[in-house]
Amino acid sequence: MTKIIKPIVSIVIVFVLMAFQTGDVLCNSKELKEKAKLALEPYKYDSSELTRILYKAKETVKEVEVPLFIGEKYRMVFELEALPKQVEVQIYNKDKDSKNRKLLFSSKDMGDKKEFQFEISKVRHVYVDYIVPPTEAGSYSGCAVFMVGYK
Q1: Contact assessment for residue 55 and residue 143, using Cβ atoms and an 8 Å cutoff
Q2: Total number of domains constituting the chain
Q3: Three-point CA angle 139, 106, 110, nearest 5°
Q4: pLDDT digit string, tens, across residues 41-76
Q5: What CATH code is carried by the domain that includes residue 74?
Q6: Residues spanned by the domain of 125
Q7: What global pTM score does this model have?
Q8: CA separation for the pair 70, 151 (Å, rounded)
Q9: Contacts by 44-48, CB closer than 8 A, 24 or more apart
């Protein structure tokens, strides 16, 4: 009986470990944050956010809230090179459920750039929306890093 149980338990453990692997080898958060920090200069580092992006059969939106202080000028740096498919980044003054929200920035006009910056001041919050395009076949994942600095 134990001859059968040990191999079955071993196989189950292997499958469980395989299920928890992320599969996005490209997502080296330390390297992405270092690149973003270089682009942040001469601003002082405030915070950063690593966002996992999962591509699905239909378009999805992933939103991240960024709290800010009104008296400061900010630079936001985005590093998107760890994404297998281009994602559009939009920045709004209110969350996606609010009426009368204004688009402050869109990466749509920037082409296939994998790194870009946005500067803003005089707001309390901004909302970063990642517009994730649908995938044709299979599922993909990756990550995006954005870093915030102040002057």
Answers
A1: no
A2: 1
A3: 80
A4: 999 999 999 999 989 889 999 999 999 998 899 999
A5: 2.60.120.1090
A6: 26-150
A7: 0.77
A8: 12
A9: 44/149, 44/150, 44/151, 45/147, 45/149, 46/74, 46/148, 46/149, 46/150, 47/147, 47/148, 48/145, 48/146, 48/147, 48/148
